[in-house]
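Hey, weird one. I pasted the RecF/RecN/SMC N-terminal domain-containing protein sequence into the form twice and got a warning about non-standard characters only the second time. First submission, copied straight from the form history:
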Amino acid sequence: WVSRQHEEEESKLAELKSERSREQGAQKPLEEQILEYSKQLEEDQYGKAEELHRNKMIEMRTTQLLSKDLKLYEEALDQAIVKFHSMKMDEINQNIRDLWRSTYRGQDIEYIEIRSEVEERSERRRSYNYRVVMMRGDADVNMRGRCSAGQKVLASLIIRLALAEAFCLDCGILALDEPTTNLDRENIESLADALVEIIRTRSQQHHFQLLIITHDEDFVQLLVRSGCIQHFYRISKNQDQNSKITKQSTAFLSV
């Protein structure tokens, strides 16, 4: 019995030794791997991992704060744009009313103005639709398709002048091409008076120039009588049918 017990113990011992050898064999590559990892941890890529992690955390937090600030800036800018748009529309419409009342001689339209309507396309996108309306008392009617050709031309000129007054105070050139087209005599005279008033208002602006292209010499005469214009340029054809520009004194129109 003792002999059999001894053999069993010897067998167990041999098995344990074999298992130890296997484990030692498996341990060696692990030790080599640990040694390799230890060397890698000493490199900058891993040796400064804590510092790099801290820097990235700072960068992430800074980005979050920046994103929050940009959101606040976006909201403030959007509100400022809406307020600026409202202020400019009030200014433009005031200019339009003043010019219309001082220019238009009819009794059917008290004044005109531009109406703006906001269209919210999305949370961050906004667009404006504009229309010109005719005012008579408390009633307003869309001008498109309901006004004469002369009223349309006059409204177009007045709106452009109002926009120039609102946005182009530092702009030196105001150009009008055939501004009297479709206007009757009374409204032509009123338009001339309005332009003369603009010239006088802008007289202190050293680089201001009013450029009018017209075939209507009577209209030019009206401007000349104001004393604001000293000369004009006449475009004509020479004998070779080439265009030529001649500077002429306003006295020429009085002849």
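That's the output from the first submission. The warning seems to come from a hidden character in my clipboard, not from the data itself. The two ends are 154 Å apart (CA to CA).
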